[in-house]
């Protein structure tokens, strides 16, 4: 964890320095953020994955057996729902994350559809959701951590990963097996998954029903007593986003993250050096495909005042634009849990 800024020691939660993070197209393990609701050392030994629920043939499968199935690789950015929480316009609950809880990686393993084809989806009890559970022991608010995704998303995009960037997953990042749900918030990418269950209903787990939801701005303390949780949908797809990582003498650099829907891929990133009065297109230096991030930079010349000194102070902004021309709002919408912040990337600069 030495390369990470520790936000919480127990359970371990930490994020990397943003300027270091964007130096790599594929995030190396030492810069992948940590988000935990329990002690990551609480591992499951003698691993077997259970697949059951609304299926014709429930079964258990070992890691060795999984390794014999067809393998696939997907590039996708893992991002915490609370990424950029500290930029919210007012105080929120939760760890005050900066913009470093993102990691763009190559994930390799077995497509969920391969296992569900073997199990057979039972037609007599139509399944609409796939539950993923890490039944390893108690977490902060539950007996174990779990979540679910719609079945159609599971069949189309979900991967059960054993490797990250060509190397075996480490325990802190979900070994021996973690769920990868491209485009969805990291809360649905269940680490240490032990159980896959098909159901007509969403998971009832705390982290599906009483956390990781965008509550209305009007909600406050009453939400903690259940006032609004039942009225809002769990977070799935993450919003179009961008962040400024560094500003040097002549260059602004950052990342941008794809948004929801079929047209959510990033078409361009725009940068302003005058707090939004004027905008210019940034240069895309890396594009990670539909589910990956975009790295960008913008070269600028500060000019000089009449006395010959450079103009070196200001506010830089960034905004991503998707294939439909949609862009980020200037300010993200405040919510109690501080999730899905998508306001302009922003950084004050003072260059000498």
From TrEMBL:
SUPFAM superfamilies referenced in this protein's UniProt entry, alphabetically: E set domains, Oxidoreductase molybdopterin-binding domain
Pfam families per record: Mo-co_dimer (PF03404), Oxidored_molyb (PF00174)
A GO-annotated cellular component: mitochondrion
Keywords, comma-separated and alphabetical: Metal-binding, Molybdenum, Oxidoreductase
Single annotated GO MF: heme binding
Residues annotated as domain Oxidoreductase molybdopterin-binding: 44-207
Cofactor: Mo-molybdopterin
Domain called Moybdenum cofactor oxidoreductase dimerisation: residue spans: 248-346
Name of the protein this chain belongs to: Molybdopterin binding oxidoreductase
